[in-house]
Amino acid sequence: MATILLSAIGGAIGTSLGGAVLGLSSAVIGRAIGGTIGNIIDNGLLGGSDPVAQGKVDTLRIQGSVEGGPIARVYGQMRVSGNVIWASRFKESVSGGGKGFGGPNVQEYSYSVSLAIGLCEGEVARIGRVWADGKRLDMSGITWRLHSGSETQMPDPAIDATEPNAPAYRGTAYVVFEDLELGQFGNRVPQFNFEVVRPDLGDAGQTGDLVEAVALIPGTGEYSLATEPVYYEEGRGKNRSANVNNLSGLSDIELSLAQLSGDMPNVGSVSLVVSWFGDDLRCGECEIYPAVEQTEIDGTPMPWQVSGVARGAAPLVGRDDENCSIYGGTPCDKSVLQAIAQIQSSGKAVMFYPFILMDIAGGNGLTDPYGGGEQNIFPWRGRITASVAPGQAGTPDKTAAMLGEVSDFFGTAMPADFTLTADGVSYSGPVEWSYRRFILHYAHLCALAGGVDAFCIGSEMRGLTTLRDGVDSFPAVAALRQLAAEVSVILPDAKISYAADWSEYFGYQPSDGSGDVMFHLDPLWSDDNIDFIGIDNYMPLSDWRDSETHLDSDYQSIYNLEYLQSNIMGGEGFDWYYANGEARRFQVRTPITDGAYGEDWIYRPKDLLSWWTKGHANRIAGVQQPGYTDWIPKSKPFWFTEIGCPAVDKGTNQPNVFVDPKSSESALPHFSNGGRDEFIQTRYLQALYGFWNDPLNNPESLEFAGRMVDMSRAHVWAWDARPSPAYPERLDVWSDGGSYARGHWISGRSGNVSLASVVLDICAASNLVHVDVSKLYGAVSGFVLNQNESARQALQPLMLGFGFECFERDGRMVFCNRDGSKDIDISTDWLAIETDEAAVSLTRNPESETAATVRIQYIDGNKDYQSGAAEAAFPDENEPRVTTASLPVSMTSGAAQNVAARWLAEARIARDVLEFSLPASQVKVTAGDVVGLATNGVEARYRIDRIAEMGIRKISATRVEAGVYRPVANEDRSFNVDEMLMIRSLAGRYLRC
User: Fold this and answer.
1) Omega cis (within 30) before 725
2) Is residue 224 within 8 Å of residue 331, measured between CB atoms?
3) Do 511 and 579 contact (CB within 8 A), yes or no?
4) Contact 480/438 with Cβ under 8 angstroms?
5) Which of 60, 458, 641, 988: disulfide with 499, CB 3.0–4.6 Å?
6) Could you report the per-residue pLDDT of 159-207, keeping only the tens digit for each?
């Protein structure tokens, strides 16, 4: 008899020993050990496999000095204690001396030591925070070095100077402290802990390896860009730091850029975002100005000044109901100069990115150009439009009056109105807060800094660039051309362009029934002063739903790279579109076609290739005009001036949206449940870089040296100038920290590793090479192994935490996420019936053997990696049946709560065990399959855990429900009773059948 197990992990990798001991195979030993603690974890969660003693959450973290001790294996970002691998003799120093004026002879003794502490196996990117005796350690006055653990590292000079033939400890990351003063630690070596960042497992698809350019935000904060420490004097002896909110001794931006270099070594370009504020959506009424958070206290030693305006004369940013600033203030000019210098000194190019934030609060009373009662609160700059928007009654669009409104927005400031000073740029032109003053000011400031690599003259002003003062005349585009010419003189060595919205760059087709097709930006793109086509590229890469029957379900997962890449030049915005919200809801897709001239590409924002390679002909009233625009095909490259995806469920459905409660633009992606999802952000970047780095998709130009899309200038939105984890943890300093969890930030997440790469690495350490993780998805923030765990011990907490399973198929170990989706329906005609056995046997395990409460211990990455606990319980249970587990995995409290809730529901559903037989001919049914089978007239789903080949195939399967595996919304808060009742309803649905 042969037995095929879903829980192949319990046999094939039962231990890392291999072979046999005393005649027993390692598989038998692994299962036997598991059987001794079977009361801890429901084996229904492990595909019928018995649990084993898995890694425990290490909260003590005692630093040792043990010969032959275990070396930790770290994945992602974790806190470790390490092992002292070398130390010098203590050095004694004496200070003090003579009596002086009859006093006693006082001598002070101090001690120092040099030592090396081994951290972990393999190469790390950097270390972050350091703790000494449990307290955060200021490293600014300490001489220390990190040896990253490469296979080519050389011996440390301090060790080499005292030890002949000193080892290099290749393959082991370690830290060396040189002449560490011990007085602050009571003249003893303290207990050190280190935050280790190890994002790279040799997988070129990791975010840290892929990204070549980032956008540096927030763009606000009066001194957020200053490298010189600045503080506010708030009273006698009371100072508040403006830009040092960490314990490194560095300014926030210095530490953030150091983290960027460590986590993303291939980044060669930084888009420096600096913001002024707009106050009206009507372009003729809108002023663009710098603003401050308060006018009472200036920064020391750097008084705030922008464009020649001091703090006392600057406007204030908007305030909320508690009189707190809605935004940070505009960075002062001197801080911008320091930021440019700091970025360039780190070997990175600077693309300067002037940014407009709309400071329009509720109750503004401003006339809404779109016809509302008043203007929406804190809207997108792309909403700036005419006094009455196109399509509204009484709009000045396509009339001579439009030129006047646009001219008022741009203003009359000229390059000669600006003067360079030691600390910034002063202004002596017309009294106006205009767009031209905004852009020309920063062009001169960049010149004062010694120049930048690139300069954008604006971004995403879609509502403005489409305004017309005639049938085919766009005054804002003409004004941008004038700015481009002037900026190119001020910055002769910089590449100049405009960062268009992805729905704007390719043309304008007004929805007024006119049939107009206007390549309205072509005069700008073809201008000799424009060097590249800038696109803020947030095009959708998916149209995913939770149902199993939606139109894209054949791809099986939204994380499927093939699926996401098929939508880069395909899918919505290329092959089809949704005519309205109802069509989107029911997936009624309308093909994109051009019935008049057969040029379908002109309506496709995703068809970069056709737009780039073809001539462009405008259409007026549906009639194609003779000749082409001035655009020369293939003449300039595309730069993705922004790309990015929020870390939220189904983020690729609508990458451009964000959650910000104060803004009218706040939204979740289409069909998102709002749950945090950092892996979809990773997959988005892997899809884009993988697609555009393929020469088959990105042709070379004959007009310039390069390819159509320059991915070295694809700036990922966003890296924060506020260092991690101070941001987002320091809510006392930065009020927008709550937006981070589901936002576009990649800082603080670049240390994540894919679940698949972790599993592969663990298997490789046990010499398992025939492994398939192609359908295993997830992001691991941090995971540590420090007790020489077997592969099975190492993998079990990951299986429980991330909800995946392992089985053998075609000679390979296959790991895949559980989703409860059905692989095959079992017909009753297939069943093999033996003499006196029922065709189908359904057994329900007693409720007394099923947990009423699930409790897990985990590592809380948001709380200095201390131990956290999450619990889920059915509210109507009175029995103290508790299932517990320790997961040495770093996760948020909400994610841990989700694990406990899923486990609880899954264990309740798994009470149903189905047994049936199939003839030997039905070989397509195998372990790991989820089958649909009707029992007592009701169809249910079962996961096949075991198949015994006995002439006929005797099958044992466990009940599953697809809904259990769907992510839960609002995962960063605790479950309440109503939510637990909902889970109870799901788990108990089969009880009513």
Assistant:
1) yes
2) yes
3) no
4) no
5) 641
6) 998 888 899 999 999 999 999 999 889 888 999 999 999 886 666 567 7
| Alpha-carbon span 244 to 229, nearest angstrom | 6
63 vs 77: CA distance, rounded Å: 18
Q: How confident is the model at residue 792 (pLDDT cuts 50, 70, 90)?
A: confident
pLDDT of residue 713: 98
* pTM (2 d.p.): 0.89
pLDDT-based confidence at residue 58 (cuts at 50, 70, 90) = low
Q: Is the peptide bond before 728 cis (omega within 30 degrees of 0)?
A: yes
Q: If DSSP codes are grouped into helix, strand and coil, which group holds residue 431?
A: coil
The two tokens of residue 220 are 């606000």
Beta bridge partners, 147, equal 174
- Chain segment 598-632, per-residue pLDDT in tens: 999 999 999 999 999 999 999 999 999 999 999 99
- Cross-strand pairs, 869: 857
Between CA 870 and CA 525 the distance in angstroms is 55
Question: Are the C-beta atoms of residues 888 and 55 closer than 8 Å to each other?
Answer: yes
User: Distance between CA 911 and CA 846 in Å, rounded?
Assistant: 8
CB atoms within 10 A of CB 347: 9
Cα separation, 509 vs 628, whole angstroms: 17
The C-alpha torsion from 237 through 239 and 244 to 249, rounded to 10°, is -10
CA 515 to chain CA centroid, Å, is 41
Kindly state the greatest CA–CA separation across the chain. Answer: 112
Consecutive H or E run containing 442: helix 435-448
Q: What percent of the chain has pLDDT over 70?
A: 88
d(CA 710, CA 418): 34
866-873, strands of its sheet edge to edge: 135-136, 126-132, 192-198, 73-80, 782-785, 882-891, 853-860, 866-873
Residue 587, both tokens: 């997936």
Residue 963 identity (one-letter amino acid)? G
Nearest CA to 352 out of 411, 412, 440, 433 is that of 440
For the residues of 537-603, what is the DSSP string, one character each?
Answer: E--------SSSSSTTGGG--TT-HHHHHHTTSSSBTTTEE-SSHHHHHTT-PEE---TTTS-GGGG
As to burial, measured by CB atoms within 10 angstroms (0-12 exposed, 13-18 middle, 19+ buried), residue 589 is middle
Confidence of residue 850 (pLDDT cuts 50, 70, 90): confident
Residue bearing the bigger pLDDT, 6 or 121: 121
CA dihedral sign, ordered 565, 691, 496, 212: positive
